[in-house]
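Input.
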Amino acid sequence: MPHSSSPTGRTLLLFNHDWDAIGHARALRGSGHPVDEDGFDLFSFPSNVQLAFFDLERWVDRLARRARSRGWTAVVSHHEQFGALAAALLAERMGWPGTPVNAILACQHKFHARQVLQQVAPEANVPFTLLDAEYGDPVPAGLTYPAFVKPVKAAFSVLAREVRSHEELHRHTRFGAWELWVIRRLVEPFERLSRQRLGPGVSSAHRMMLEQPVHAAQYNLDGYVFEGRLHPVGVVDAIMYPGTQAFMRHQLPTRLPQAVQDRAAEVARRFLTAVGFTNGLFNMEFFYDEAQDRLSVIEFNPRMASQYSDLYLRVLGVDLHAIGLALAHGQDPAGLPRAVPQAGAAASFVYRQFDPNEAVVMPGKRQQQAFENSFPDGLLFCYPKSAGSVARDHKWLGSWRYGIVHLDGRDEAELRQRCEQASGLLGWPAPYAELPVAVPAVVREDVLHASALSVSPAIGTSP
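Output.
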């Protein structure tokens, strides 16, 4: 592991799936540092059956009882739904370095976070209000439209979208019994802890909130806090499919001027200081409207944006997963060696289907082998789904994300050329092409954390 000094003891990795499995394997390669893993895969059947019986606090209690016998001295998780909070609880219990529990809760409680931001950086906030209705209750009259609606606790990015009328908001907030059960199972652990830790005045996490819509370019500030001091790592550009709010690619280096990057870092510093975020990786999603010179925060994620770790390593030589491991062991990440950057530009390309009647053919073994032979530095992720799962994706997301490819190049021009070549090998359209004008309205999907409703076969449904 590329640490300036090797940590002692074993590291516990929670919910170590997908991007994190790749990133931690890379960061730990050749180190000999022992690790253990725990936590089920929320988006894969049958692993996600455990959701029916999962109790976050009891699970953390069991981990704490095992910690000394296993020799654990640190815990790491970048999992949004349960992992980051569980890791903070366990670190607190064991006296290990970690992100304070209350800071995790304050970031993930979207309404509370807006209230804090209004106090410390109102110029970067947007008008917001709580939707005065429980899930499934009638929508109050007299609201202003259009509005951006999202959950107070973002269990599902699929529930975040712009609505243009009372009728549209009503349709959007109707859920079946199964959907309500899944939502409550995912949100209830957070609800209990937020009421305990953030105080009786905090709003319920089983609610939706409304924000004034913003239509501007989207960016991500990534960084970490060590001993209370914020250290920016970089900014990733989030580029949408034209006419939609669906990610098309995430790209480095950013086109955002340095002065705006500095403003974003200052907003993050004020907010994270206010919520007591003294240790850990963070990701701040924000809009920047160049015409109005306005920066607007979308949300704070009190964890690494794991999908970006590979991009930063390629372009900046910075390994976010190595930083996360260092922080968990109380080590200053400034002492980590940097890799030699291998590219001038890199991107995470997202392949989507917007027409549910359009066929998508997954690449066969020969195509995948051709991709690996031509792009040994590339990463390929395929997401085949049943017809029922695809239908749910279109219902909740307005599109189906069927693949992701990571590539780099000497510059943007070569990056695009390599993407088009790789896409041709896979039989997929490159995520640069313009779409037809008549694109269905879609929600803002957090590609790092897809909805269990849309991508998980879950309990009682077909895989």
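The radius of gyration is 21 Å.
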